[in-house]
Amino acid sequence: MIAKRSHPKGSFPLGETMALVIALAAGTPTASLGDAFSGPIVADTTWSGDVSVTGDVVVEPGAVLTILPGTTVLFTAGSTSFDHSLGIDGLCDMIVRGAVTALGGPASSDSIRFDSDAASPAPGDWGKIIVSAQATDSLCQYRYMEVQHGTVGIDVQGDQIFIDHCRLAGNSDAGMEWSDPPIKIFLSSMVFESNASDGLRVVTADSLEITDCHFRDNASAGLALTEWNVATVSLCTFDGNGSGLEGSGGGLANLTSCSVTGSVTGVSVSAGGSAGGLHLEGSTVSGVVEVTGSGTVEVLGNPSLESVSCTATDGVDSLEVFVNDNSVSGWISLRSDGSEARLSGEVRRNVVSGVSLYAGGYINGDWAYMTAVVDSNVVSGGTTGIRIQASKYNINYRWYGRIDATLTRNEITGSTYGINAFESLIYPLYLGILNLTSAENVITGSPTGIRLDGFDSASFDGDVITACETGIDCSGGGDLTMRSCGVTGNAVKGLIFTNSPGVVLGGSLAEANDIYANTGQNVETTDLVEAAYNYWGTTDEDSLVAMITGPVNYSPWTDASHTGVYATTYRSGLITGIEHWSGEVKVAGDVLVPFGSSLTIDPGMGHAGCDGGSVRLDCGRSTSDRGRGAARRQRGGSWLAAARGDRSRGWSVGAGDVFGEFDGQFVCGRACASGGGDGSD
Q1: Among the listed residues 368, 382, 363, the one whose alpha carbon sits nearest the alpha carbon of residue 420
Q2: Element (H or E) spanning 463, and its range?
Q3: Contact by Cβ (8 Å): 609, 583
Q4: pTM of the full predicted structure?
Q5: Is the dihedral of CA 373, 376, 377, 383 positive or negative?
Q6: pLDDT in tens, 84-95
Q7: Does residue 452 contact residue 430 with C-beta atoms inside 8 Å?
Q8: Cα 364 to Cα 270: distance, rounded to the nearest angstrom
Q9: CA atoms within 13 A on the CB side of 343
Q10: pLDDT, position 496
Q11: Partners of residue 36 on adjacent β-strands
Q12: What is the DSSP secondary-structure string of 1-15?
């Protein structure tokens, strides 16, 4: 047996060093140590019972320190009698350059404990256990061990150690840190608790496998990763940490069957390159799940998530996102944010309060791109069911973005906007490109079912918007088509189109829309809407027309079964080519006779019914002017009557000059007329 004594800081008597060398050469056996110890260990040594460490302990290469079950190792708080350069200056450390085997047992009496000798231990009382790169990996084994009130509990600087069932708690920095690049890290059944920084910090590693570990009440991250390739984390709990898991430096984090609670940020990964990203499956996470950068994100089959945010950033690498089959109490947000940022995403079969899509480059002229499919989600409880924004503007900058979004088979209930799609926050500064394809979505109970503002193209096929206040409110848009949709039973209006040319509703019996029973108006528009072959809740034209405001070409229309076809007895819209009117003609909406077309009104027309519209010319100067027309108002509209001439003869309206305004509409002043008369017909 070779006994050791405490020595003054920085000293280790030469005579005792030589005695150790001689004893090793003679095969002298080692035994447990005395009550106090500091300095190098150069021979195999065993600790048991209560061990007091007054200075740095250095397990030198070739030596093995064995710590028996039930051993308590207490480090002198705040001072050291021997200070090695590898440790923390002025504090007691254990520095492993050889090997330490500390195998405790599951019973509390068999646990191995490292702590401060202070009457009231506090974080940072002593230094840390350092497993250096020189350590003998195969013999570095730790089990059922507690490390408390140091700076970093265990600092691993080597390739790999075998550690499980250990608790690292109450340290002033991290509970455990890997600070040099190991090839592989294996951790099982560990507890990282109440450390003043991270629970487990991995500065750099090739691969990590962490299972059945618990991260509790650590001030920063429960698990912090930097510069890693692949981390596999399973059956772990994260509770009350500053954040659950934080990863930066571009690796792939695989989390399966984990629980994260009590953190604002549940999981945060900054990915880089095509191999980076996040796979999250079968887990519950309170706090946001967020991924930025490039690579692949798979958030699959998680029973409870608070929110998911995935952001592609600058560069040519893209972020590919799959968020499927989750229950999400908040938002799923996909963002393509930065110059040349590119994101492709799928959001499918989730129960969620809202989905947000955004694309915008940084400043003036830098574009960001997104393609996204949002399919078969149940959406309720948010301010907006599905929000789509391409580009952004403020007084200093313009962000340019393009989004091609496909929305299919979603059920959206009770949001302020069921779908809110627009190209800029400030009308009319449309800076981006937005193409929307919508099919078989069902929207109910929203003040506005669908709001569109500043889109490039939008198509709706088989969508149902019902029991909202307004079905669709569209302004400042491009081409819009709607086929086989139902816009019914909305409390204020069905469809509103403002400054939206190029709207086509229906077009054939196979594509007939059901647009009816909307309080107020079924359609209100400022621009011509082509709306043939739709069912309007009635086959009676007078009832149909009463629920339309503005120029709508609704004829022919169909019945509820979409088999019968009914043609108008009213006239409205654009006249192309040559047209004759005779008998009684009912006018519903504006009638426009453009340059190159001709309207001939036959003799004997005592009057023509007019329902809120006017007959107008939109043509050049005639070379055959014969008189001035007169406008007569009937049933709230305006009527362009014959030029002065013979009542008994027919008259035609051809090219002429606009000379004035009647009832808010310009009407023709000069008109061609054949024959004479006073124009009273």
Answers
A1: 382
A2: none
A3: no
A4: 0.81
A5: positive
A6: 998 999 999 999
A7: no
A8: 26
A9: 36
A10: 97
A11: 52
A12: --------TT---HH
